[in-house]
Amino acid sequence: MILQDLNRVRQIAVIAARHGFADVTERAGLWRMLGRKEKVEVSPESQRASTARRFRMLLNELGPTFVKLGQILSTRGDLLPAEFIDELSMLQDQVDPIPLDQVHAQIRESLGKEVQDLFAHIDPTPLAAASIAQVHRAVTQSGDEVVVKVQRPGISERIDSDLTVLRSLARLLEAVIEETGVYTPSGIVDEFDKAIHEELDFINEASNIRAFLANHVDRPYLKIPRVYDELSSRKVLTLEFIRGVKISQAKLSEDDRKVLAHHIVEGSFRQLFDDGLFHGDPHPGNLLVLEGNRLALLDFGVVGRLTKPMQETLVMLCLAVALKDSDSVARILYRMGQADTRANLVGFRNDIDNIIGQHLPTTLGQVDARTLLRDLLDLAVKYRIRIPKEYALLSRASVSTEGMLRSLYPEMNILEMVLPYAKELLAGRYDPSQFQGGLMRTLLRFQSLATDLPTQLSQILLDLESGKFTVTVRADQFDKLNENLRSVAIIAFLGLCACGFIVGAFISFAQKPWMYGNVPVLGIVGIALAAAFFGAVFTWYLFGGRFRKVSVIRWLKKRR
């Protein structure tokens, strides 16, 4: 590491100790890396706080990169327990706005023209200021009202520097902490690296907005802002300005609330099961109410994508939950994830049965979707089932949507609301008149299996008859046992050879008259040569052959 990185590591170690994580820094060897240990007192606020809250306070004090890490982790219920997700969801960017002259400089550098040639006016007071970018209202040269999102100067370089430190810390943690959960620290840093660089690239967000605009062109109840491509780049994004009121601040009648609730459900359904592209952060600040009970969706930095197989799996999961079929829920979750080990499906199913029984009443005012989804994800983590991040993001989006629906129309009957969409989903899945229907695909797969099965069975029977049929059984324990038996046999063989050689050398050389006192010098020399030779052979086998396969991390763990 360079000196700057070491200074950052020292800063992280001090702040972590101040928030009660001194044991982690000690185990990770940060102070050994820095050469000296500083005595840091735990702050009074951290002494009273829970681990999750102390973790949030730690990230908040470490600065924009770590705040962003916490915000991204708050969307990943498959990585952290619910308590941590709740705390990290409260992380807010607390940064001062950058001066207007820096905004102009960034626009000029990114778009290659003077600001006055691009915009007739830019409001000097930002609409919002965050750790990555800030937003200003503006007017184009053609008179269109727009919003301009400008990336903070130097933020990309600062994040890359912090990522270098994070990777080093992750490797240290992996070397000293045996149990790191379903994901390793390095894996989490890799996920963060990908997510943060996608967010830093405004071209990616512009592409998301264009895709949403194309998907919703025939849905008049939901408006998506237009992208001004000629006024956008990797660090500047210019969008259509939409006049509206945040849904949490709008004054609505009961009928208006009912209509808007139906629009939210309809839009969510179409995004998930028609488009395969859904908004990853639909909180009330990103949803505006327009005239005519229409809605506008904002901020497309975080989106989720579902493939057709993922959509079909989601349909079956929703159906299994609605029917309270815990066995099917367990098997679907197991199939959609990647289990690190062989999961205990019986225990998994019993735990799911308890969750479904607790959280599945009939009216929206009683449903706690937040707890239901979080409990299911927590169970997956408990049983070491790695759920794809798209489902975790969908869980976060569903929780936000459920919260808005609860505020808008808590009396809405969930069965009455969802039943038409459930019928549509099942009709599309099992309608044989549609070649793309799920039933048709299932029949085609079964037909292919039925066609190939006789040939495959015939091949197996012929191999069995001719003696070519073999069954290979692999098990880690058998491999370890085989390795140990081989080692014992080789060591025993070398030991017998050494004993025979030593005795033979002593007898042979002892017959010579060369004596020193009453001691046969040549016999002693023969014993020494034999011992040295076989000692060298044994040492080569032990360290050159066997220990060479031991990884550095395993070696470090054995030294602890």
UniProtKB/TrEMBL annotation:
Listed InterPro entries: ABC1_dom (IPR004147), Kinase-like_dom_sf (IPR011009), UbiB_kinase (IPR050154)
Entry protein name: AarF/ABC1/UbiB kinase family protein
Record-annotated membrane-spanning stretches: 488-509, 521-543
Coiled-coil stretches noted in the UniProt entry, renumbered to this chain: none
Domain of life: Bacteria
Keyword Calcium among UniProt keywords: no
UniProt record similarity statement: Belongs to the protein kinase superfamily. ADCK protein kinase family.
One family name in Pfam for this protein: ABC1
Alphabetical UniProt keywords: Kinase, Membrane, Transferase, Transmembrane, Transmembrane helix
GO molecular function: kinase activity
Keyword Membrane: yes
ABC1 atypical kinase-like domain ranges (all copies): 91-332
